[in-house]
């Protein structure tokens, strides 16, 4: 665990130096990558460790984005609004988890998939509070320059990713992680051995929600304008899963590597094949999953 | 006779609308090996599930070591001292044998030294598990897996060990080996309740035997008496 922690610190310090090297394009890309990293790390709690294929990331992301945006609209300071978004996602995940985690496998996946749709419709309907389909404008932070703003959101996302990573590392080496691994392999046996499976699954689900909620709020502040189809986009759920699968489910560094590789692919493909970029990206993902089913992490083990 | 360790009376349980147990009464005394036999669908596995808290009973009582356990969670039952070795073994296939065993001690809070001591003891009883300790449990043979499952149950330091389908799918030589190990553990004070389809094995292993049929215990008697009972011989042993 110590070695993993040291490696992670080194990695995050390196990422923190990125603004020195690149222009605002790289800064934007870096911020997106860290946001993807948060999504992937978060999914790893429920999908990688507990083995529950959750599609709820988009729901947490959108909920966090709107919680943060509405709080700011009502006059809350930005930092407080972000924390509030995290709390909202945490409570929502707890309530949702108690209901949904009774289902297993495909049933759970489908149930978690529709949550974002339901929330999107609710936000659409609550025009007074959320602006409905017209979207919601956020106050532009009073910072010196455009570059200063970009830098600010980059470091905010970096701090969040580091926090999520630390939480994952701690969870993996705790009783919670051990219990989740057992649930993933054989839930009824874990139950029989005295693991409180319901509690652990809900805890994993809450951990998979809270950081995504904050990421949604930071994203909302970053782009200044959100609308329901944007932040409740099912692609946030799908991307989180794809990134973890690319990197290596259940592993420590897999989600982050997966996020970095996925974003690189997405960006390269999008820049070079504008007309057919989703098709090319899809094909690449299929190839990766076919030929590297255990993710990038397995490459190192094979050569070592 | 001494106070029974486990006394079940009027226990009823089932799945949804299907009632499986129709008032089960029997007792297991401390320090004995008891056996539960009966045909398919008699309710043996359901009874064990009800005893270990996996299936909440609708009626009846489960007295264990002076406390009432009917309706308790699996966690509480295990904490009270009943461990369950499930049918089909249910190991954590992608975890090492050692981790599987440690998982059995999940609820214990008596320190690393006690765990290490118990682990060593288990490796003495099942030397093959010591040899395979770093191997994934999924790569073990059927007999080794059953040993691993029994050993995992033992790691919770139970007073009563429930074993479902001890010999299912195992070679006769392995069954003998397992029976010897269980007898050795029993001599050290462990009480056992074993569900067994192979009635000959059951009668040989256990002192008391409980015959189950259609959700009730229809006979409880010393194994010796059952072995010589013409009805039992005809129904379960295939000899007249």
Structure overview:
The complex is a heterodimer of chains A (304) and B (240). Chain A is an all-alpha fold. Chain A has one domain (2-237). Chain A contains 16 helices and two strands. The longest helix of chain A has 27 residues, at 146-172. The model of chain A has no long low-confidence stretch (mean pLDDT 90). Chain B folds into two domains: 1-81 and 158-177 and 190-240, P-loop containing nucleotide triphosphate hydrolases (Rossmann fold, 3-Layer(aba) Sandwich), CATH 3.40.50.300; 90-157, no CATH class. Chain B is 38% helix and 25% strand. In chain B, the strands form two sheets. A six-stranded mixed β-sheet of chain B has the order 6-7-8-3-9-10, sandwiched between helices. Chain B has a four-stranded antiparallel β-sheet with strand order 2-1-4-5, with helices on one face.
Structural class of chain B: alpha/beta
The backbone outline of chain A, from C-alpha atoms, is globular
**CATH level 1 name of the largest domain in chain B:** Alpha Beta
| Binned strand content of chain B | 25-35%
- Calculate the mean pLDDT score of chain A and round it: 90
Give the proportion of residues in helices of chain A. over 70%
User: Helix segment count of chain B?
Assistant: 10
Rg of chain A over CA atoms, rounded to whole Å, is: 19 Å
Q: What is the gyration radius of chain B calculated from CA atoms?
A: 17 Å
Helix content of chain B: 25-40%
Reported CATH architecture of the largest domain in chain B: 3-Layer(aba) Sandwich
For the record, the count of structural domains of chain A works out to 1
What is the spatial order of strands in the main beta sheet of chain B?
6-7-8-3-9-10
- Average pLDDT over all residues of chain B: 91
CATH topology of the largest domain in chain B: Rossmann fold
Order of helices and strands of chain A: HHHHHHHEHHHHEHHHHH
Strand content of chain A: under 5%
Pair with the most extensive interface? A-B, 16 and 20 residues
Mind telling me the CATH superfamily name of the largest domain in chain B? P-loop containing nucleotide triphosphate hydrolases
The total strand number of chain A stands at 2
